[in-house]
Amino acid sequence: MALAEFVQQLDQLVVEADQAFSAATGQEALEAARIEFLGAKAGRLKAVQKQLATVPVADKPAAGKRLNEVKAAIEAAFETATARLENTSDEVRDETFDPTLPGPAWSLGKVHPITQTILLLKDIMGRLGFTPVEGPEIEDSWHNFDALNVPAIHPARDPLDNFYLAHAQWWGAQSGDQGHGSADMLRSQTSTVQIRTMQQQPPPLRIISLGRVYRPDTADETHYPMFHQMEGLMVDRGVTMADLKTVLRLFATAYLGNSVPVRFRPSFFPFTEPSVEVDYYWNGRWVEFGGAGMVDPNVFQAVGYDPDEVTGFAFGLGVERLCMIRHGIRDIRDLYTNDVRFLAQF
Ligand code: PHE
Fold first, then answer.
1. pTM: predicted TM-score of the whole model, two decimal places
2. How does pLDDT run across 175-226, given as a tens digit for each residue?
3. Which domains does the chain have, with CATH numbers?
4. Cα of 108 to ligand 1 centre, how many Å?
5. Closest CA to ligand 1's atom 9
6. Angle between the 113-127 and 319-327 helix axes, to the nearest 10 degrees?
7. Which residues make Cβ contacts (< 8 Å) with residue 156, sequence separation at least 6?
8. pLDDT in the model for residue 55
9. Cβ of 232 less than 6 Å from ligand 1
10. Mutate which of 185, 191, 276 to test ligand 1's pocket (most atoms within 8 Å of Cβ)?
11. The predicted structure's pLDDT at residue 175
12. Chain centroid to CA 195: how far?
């Protein structure tokens, strides 16, 4: 075979191989084309290479050089096609996808402002050494009243002021069995948890209990039939009213910022003696936050503590009021109408 004819066959092969590789749309087609042109046994390049033997001896160096160049060119075309297929997946590609665009915005929920307040109160009181404890919202009247020294005939037990369950006997009903297991009512105060904790643990105690309480009040700006209280109880030898005032002042200072004056006004609760109303001075006026006092010896007796050995203070503060005053919320109902536009502000 003349050199010119040999070279012409090689050049033809490069063009055809390049076209075949470029046209391949998947791995299988590319592999078939590779075998057709570069196959070691029956490939078309191999077939042309075999013709080299028939080229005149004088032309062999030139023919061999050309053969090597063509082989390199076809292999390069194959590599290019391989790289192209690796960059595209076999699936149809979405040509409009721009990976540099920010993704769609996720709308995250928020922790309810009351829950936020509860977490913060637990944190502050935790630093003062008070451990959070919990009690049931469905209570028996022994824990809600009897053990708290509320007489059987006492206006606080009035069904107009409490959510009794249908079967419960309320008037003059002292359960006497320490209330075990009887579900009488939705608790009207978290003071029930004082009793439950003291029944389970010997003194000394430093606990808080944050949770829901229920009273059949008509909802208005400052009332809601369900609200939250933070109950505190500290029992030890020699606990005094001064400790109570100090804890409440330190708490208010941590929660409301800067030093917040505390005022005690004489009051009455069956389970504390003496009893006080707790006011904080906030934004130029005195605001009532709850009740407090020294634990009545009768309460200690009800739970098996010795009133000659220990003394203690207790307080109950309104969580909604604490939350509202901090955030400037004026209507308690806003907290419970579940308007996300309102709740998302906190
Ligand atoms: N339990 C009382 C209330 O709900 C508050 C209180 C708690 C008062 C502890 C004294 C001691 O009004």
1. 0.70
2. 555 555 566 899 999 999 999 999 999 999 999 999 999 999 999 999 999 9
3. 3-92 (no CATH), 113-137+187-343 (3.30.930.10)
4. 37
5. 315
6. 100
7. 145, 150, 188, 270
8. 93
9. no
10. 191
11. 52
12. 31
d(CA 74, CA 76) in angstroms, rounded, equals 5
H helix intervals, the chain: 3-23, 27-38, 44-50, 60-87, 113-127, 141-144, 191-200, 241-256, 297-303, 319-327, 340-343
Tokens describing residue 315: 């307080």
CA distance 98 to 160: 65
Q: What are the structure tokens assigned to 287, written together? A: 């605001």
Contact 219, 186 (CB under 8 A): no
Mean pLDDT of the chain: 91
Q: Which of 269, 272, 294 to mutate to test the pocket of ligand 1 (most atoms within 8 A of CB)?
A: 269
User: Do strands 272-282 and 131-132 pair parallel, antiparallel, or not at all (unpaired)?
Assistant: unpaired
- pLDDT of 89 above 60: no
CA distance 314 to 312: 7
Give the three-state DSSP class for 21: helix
Q: In this predicted model, what pLDDT tens digit does every residue of 94-147 receive, in sequence order?
A: 667 788 888 888 888 899 999 999 999 999 999 999 999 999 999 998 999 999
Residues contacting 130, CB < 8 A, separation 6+:
206, 207, 208, 232, 234
Q: DSSP string of 182-235?
A: ---EE-S-THHHHHHHHHHSPSPEEEEEEEEEE--PPP-SS--SEEEEEEEEEE
- Non-local CB neighbours of 213 within 8 Å, separated by 6+ positions: 137, 186, 187, 188, 189, 190, 226, 227, 228, 229
For ligand 1, atom 4, which residue shows the shortest CA distance?
189
272 lines ligand 1 (CB under 6 A): yes
- Could you tell me if the CB of 293 is within 6 A of ligand 1? yes
